[in-house]
């Protein structure tokens, strides 16, 4: 197995575990800010898995949108992940830091609806990523 394929699998599997954690948080009916942040992180990792699969040797940055832009020339299917990526990117800072919002605190500012929408967006990203990896012959099961 090639190094990039191995890295793609590692990043994808961690992303999938993060998705399960976000879904668990949703079922717990609390910690919505953390669930939204984990959803952003899972999307970031899923997209990074595709960047590794596409041949990138080092993958830096935290923007899902930037990752989609970089992957778009590899497959037009990543266009479907652009809008969900934009929405998830909004959870990178404000879900974690009190000064990331103009007032209030992250744990008081996010709702179950926010988390449901984040998981829905994340699901779209996972569909695009898993399809891309599978078409490249990478076993992500």
Question: In words, what does this structure look like?
Answer:
The protein starts with a helix and ends in a 6-residue tail after the last helix. It has a single domain, classed as Four Helix Bundle (Hemerythrin (Met), subunit A) (Up-down Bundle), CATH 1.20.120.330. The protein is elongated. It is an all-alpha fold. The longest helix has 26 residues. It contains six helices and no strands.
CATH topology: Four Helix Bundle (Hemerythrin (Met), subunit A)
Largest β-sheet summary: none
How would you describe the oligomerization state of the chains in this entry? single chain
Q: Would you tell me the structural class of the helices and strands? A: mainly alpha
Number of helices: 6
How many beta-strand elements? 0
**Overall form:** elongated
Query: Which radius of gyration do the C-alpha atoms yield?
Result: 15 Å
Q: Indicate the CATH class.
A: Mainly Alpha
- SSE ordering: HHHHHH
Tally of separate domains: 1
* Terminal-residue CA separation: 15 Å
What is the fold's blueprint, element by element?
Blueprint: H1 3-28, H2 32-53, H3 64-71, H4 82-89, H5 106-109, H6 112-135
């Amino acid at each position: 197995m090639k190094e990039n394929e191995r890295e793609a699998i590692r990043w994808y599997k961690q992303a999938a575990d993060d998705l399960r954690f976000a879904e668990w948080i949703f079922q717990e009916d609390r910690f919505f800010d953390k669930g939204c942040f984990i959803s952003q992180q899972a999307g970031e990792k899923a997209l990074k898995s595709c960047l590794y699969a596409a041949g990138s040797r080092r993958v830096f940055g935290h923007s899902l949108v930037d990752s989609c832009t970089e992957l778009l020339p590899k497959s037009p299917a990543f266009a479907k992940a652009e809008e969900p990526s934009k929405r998830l990117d909004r959870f990178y800072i404000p879900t974690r830091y009190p000064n990331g919002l103009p007032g209030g605190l992250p744990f008081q500012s996010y709702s179950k609806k926010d988390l449901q929408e984040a998981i829905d967006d994340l699901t779209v990203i996972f569909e695009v990523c898993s399809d891309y990896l599978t078409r490249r012959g990478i076993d992500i099961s």
